[in-house]
Predict the structure.
Amino acid sequence: MPNMDRAFRLLLLGLFLVNVARSALAQAPGTPQSPSVPAWAQPGLPTHTQVAPPPDFHRPSRNFDSRIGIFEGQSDIGSAVVPGDARYDPATRQYTITSARYNIWYTRDEFRFLWKKLSGNVSISADIAYPHPNGYGDPKAVLIVRQNLGDDSKEAMVAPHGLGMIHLAQRPERNVRIKAMEYRIGGRGRPGGATPDSLVPVMARRIGIEKRGNEFALFVSVDGEPMHQFGPPITLHFDEPFYAGIGFCSHLADKSDTAVISNLVFENSAGMVH
């Protein structure tokens, strides 16, 4: 029995010393800590407005040279509090991206990015669905062209927001605030209205982006009709090669959500959006 009591005391002492060492390591200067969520990155709520990050706030992206479906690599652009994840189902040819990240906007981005490195023209189109409607109401999946994998890269993108808005946006230079053409579609006499005369928000069924030289155009199919250009194009020059692909952010810096991207068209030429 004395030997057992002595062994038990030694075990308790060992556990105490381990906890002390862990605490000291966590507090040591230079020890990596889990990044916190600054106030500006909190989502827009009745009691809070999301704003642009400080001009000098940047995080290096985490890049993974691992193929997924047709894409050459993946990146957690701008890093994040919660790591991202992406899966490809060859049977359905669906990409499922799970990601937190506060936004793809302002002067820097945080999102999970699946990419190819390309030159020349590009056509990308896809069906985009948000399977968890009870989360934050405005997740953002993007079809996007970026100059590089930095969080403040020049870029052009199209996106359907979870609340129904679609946009064609650009960051014309590094670390410059996004500019956008935004569209909200509504219809009357559609399901979901309180009366036949109620204006009901309409989610575009399919979106696309086309790079033709230095011009980028948004393409939309609202109800399954053939894709058609929606609004005027923007003009933006990219040095070659550049990165093109798909991505997603939950619009919540520390909470993940999911986007499903299917029926993907991805061609290294113009005029192929459908």
User: Anything to note?
Assistant: The helical segments are 2-27.
